[in-house]
Design goal:
The protein has 370 residues and is of the alpha+beta class. It is built from 13 helices and 9 strands. Helix 3 crosses helix 5.
């Protein structure tokens, strides 16, 4: 099974997983042959990528690529978040018209608490706390999918960091609510196709403060959660927003959520840009460890991400093309590979087996989709 952007599909590709919406309706069944017409239909549904079958290569792959949480629980969480945020937004609008505050947040927090609990339970019962699957997002529900992904990543990092159950719950709830301030910003600004103007960027930069204010006025959430919401775009060198806080001024739990938020946002397709490759984002985070992000947390986070899932095609620094057959858990940037010959066939000779932990002179240059 291999992740592929729709733009890279070829006529022989076979869908490896059902395409399912957040209402758990199957839109296209696995094993479907992906024609150009079907690819356009999938795009029209808001998807930009799929998983395809690679039968010959799959026989060589030594580890399964799977979601860290049950896909049905993920879809239900996205649906529940969308429903409660939409109701909350409508409630805020009515309260503004009536010049009152207070009631709109009750249903929101009840649902958010339930979703946070379900995600924490899933991750605490996971066999392996590593992210190997590249999540398939849609343009239509990006904000809600991003909230769930950020929470999953932040909970995973919380577990690895040995946080208490109370702090883990605070991290989960804050991750789910981090972008609630966007409910008060015009979709034309945050859901844009062109680069933001300076004035639009200034409006975008208000969303942590806006989110804090509406949560403070409409919920009884604790100070830890509200601090994370207002600080999740701060950076430890003071270059973030809205206040330009430095490391000692930033809540320790915020430093977990900011990493999760950045990673998922950068690896997601948006209308105004394509997703960055997972290895590039991981390198960005590690390159800025100790500058933008907490060094120890970034180091722990990097060991939880598998940037080259089994089945990925890659190009090496010596020009050789290969398929990832297994990852080295402690060194995710140096997996075990099987090379392709110049004829495009897998090289099954001993020379075709490449363990990058042993080949110190080789690095992966990029992921290939064709």
């Amino acid at each position: 099974m291999r992740f592929k952007p729709l733009d890279s599909l070829i006529s022989d590709d076979i869908l490896a997983e059902n395409i399912v919406n957040i209402n758990s309706q199957t839109l296209l069944k696995k094993n479907t042959k992906l024609t150009a017409k079907l690819a356009e239909r999938i795009k029209g549904l808001g998807f930009n990528s799929v998983y395809v079958k690679t039968p010959e290569e799959d026989a060589l792959i030594e580890e399964e690529v799977k979601d860290i949480i049950n896909p049905e629980i993920r879809r239900k969480a996205i649906y529940d978040i969308k429903e409660c945020v939409d109701i909350f937004k409508d409630g805020l609008s009515k309260q503004k018209q009536q010049l009152m505050y207070g009631d709109a947040g009750q249903a929101l927090i009840k649902t958010i608490d339930s979703v946070a609990e379900s995600l924490i339970d899933e991750l605490l019962n996971s066999d392996d706390l590593k992210i190997s699957i590249m999540d398939i997002k849609t343009e239509t529900h990006y904000m809600y999918e991003h909230a769930i992904n950020t929470a999953v990543l932040a909970i995973m990092l919380s577990v690895k960091s040995g946080l208490s159950s109370k702090d883990m719950k605070n991290v989960a709830i804050a991750s789910l609510l981090a972008n609630v301030g966007y409910t008060q910003i015009s979709p034309e600004i945050y859901d844009h196709e062109n680069p933001l103007t300076r004035e639009q960027q200034e409006i975008i930069n208000t969303h942590p403060k806006v989110g804090y204010d509406i949560l403070a006025n409409n919920t009884n959430l604790n100070a830890h959660i509200k601090s994370i919401v207002i600080q999740h775009h701060e950076r430890i060198n003071g270059s973030g927003y809205p206040f330009g806080l430095k490391s000692a001024e930033i809540h320790p739990l915020t430093k977990i959520v900011m990493l999760a938020d950045v990673y998922d946002a950068m690896t997601s397709d948006r209308k105004h840009r394509k997703a960055f490759a997972h290895n590039e984002v991981l390198e960005y985070i590690m390159g800025n460890a100790g500058t933008l992000f907490d060094f120890d947390l970034a180091n722990t986070f990097s060991r939880c991400i598998i940037p080259y899932p089994a089945g990925s095609y890659v190009k090496l620094s010596n020009g050789i093309k290969a398929i990832v057959i297994r990852n080295n858990p402690s060194h995710p940037l140096r997996p075990v590979l099987r090379a392709f010959s110049i004829h495009g066939l897998l090289d099954n000779s001993p020379e075709g087996y490449i363990d990058l932990m042993e080949k110190h002179n080789l690095t992966i240059e990029c992921i290939l989709y064709e």
